[in-house]
UniProtKB/TrEMBL annotation:
This is GntR family transcriptional regulator. Keywords: DNA-binding, Transcription, Transcription regulation. Residues 13-80 form the HTH gntR-type domain. Gene3D superfamilies: GntR ligand-binding domain-like, Winged helix-like DNA-binding domain superfamily/Winged helix DNA-binding domain. InterPro entries: GntR_C, TF_FadR/GntR_C, Tscrpt_reg_HTH_GntR, WH-like_DNA-bd_sf, WH_DNA-bd_sf. Pfam families: FCD (PF07729), GntR (PF00392). It comes from the Bacteria. It comes from Xanthobacter tagetidis. GO terms for molecular function: DNA binding; DNA-binding transcription factor activity. The keyword DNA-binding applies.
Length: 232
């Protein structure tokens, strides 16, 4: 669990929430691998918190789908199965495609500036080679489009799976090398948005989500096949 950063608690934030934030960032950025075990004792020592506080933080992440509690064995970072990846890809494609259509239909000078700024931040992150910053910028770009849709209920539903989508994005991005390829994929999303082309924007976002999903599913299935064929 060396990928966990130091615990920082902003004013008026509870200790368990601060610990959950630190763990969430480490998980969604890929610093803590899917399937990794998390022990209350080690986390309590690392954060210098009580086990009860750490346990409360872990329960928060369970509710977000990032951690699972295994009977008799403790806590574990959620592992994406091929079915999980397909579920998230199809759900994400529906939500983001609708958001892109609505955002393109409402596009104005302010919206174009917001999209350009979000893409520029992603471009900077790609150039920096920092995976954590890249995942954050990638997620921020997609969340920006959802916000620009102007549909509050759509945004609320997206927030319900946001952390799982971020974990999905982290997994997807690591399959796409070099980082320039990732930037090209997002450039194809930006162009129809800036042009206010609702149909093309909707298709671009749906296609990217499903393409990324297919890549993750294929990767996970390959890993599963290799694991089944390994020597005991």
């Amino acid at each position: 669990m060396s990928g966990i950063g130091a615990l920082e608690r902003p004013k008026k934030q509870s200790l368990d929430r601060a610990a959950a934030d630190s763990l969430r960032n480490a998980i969604t950025s890929g610093q803590i691998a899917p399937g990794a075990r998390l022990t209350e004792i080690r986390l309590a020592e690392q954060f210098q918190l009580s086990r009860g506080t750490v346990r409360a933080a872990l329960h928060r992440l369970v509710s977000e789908g990032l951690v699972v509690q295994r009977p008799y064995s403790g806590w574990e970072v959620t592992s994406l199965t091929p079915q999980d990846a397909w579920d998230l890809a199809t759900l994400r494609s529906s939500l983001e495609a609708l958001a892109a259509r609505l955002a393109a239909e409402r596009m104005d000078a302010g919206g174009r500036k917001t999209i350009e700024d979000a893409f520029s931040a992603l471009e900077v992150a790609c150039g920096g080679g920092d995976w954590e910053a890249l995942v954050a910028a990638d997620m921020a770009f997609h969340r920006t489009v959802v916000t620009l849709s102007g549909n509050r209920r759509l945004a609320e539903h997206y927030d319900l799976i946001a952390n799982q989508v971020r974990l999905y994005i982290a997994s997807s991005n690591r399959l796409i090398l070099p980082m320039g390829s990732l930037l090209d994929r997002h450039r194809a999303l930006v162009e129809p948005l800036l042009a206010g082309d609702a149909e093309r924007a909707e298709k671009a976002f749906r296609d990217l989500a499903m393409r990324s999903g297919a890549e993750i599913v294929a990767h996970l299935e390959k890993i599963g096949t290799e694991g089944e064929g390994a020597d005991p």
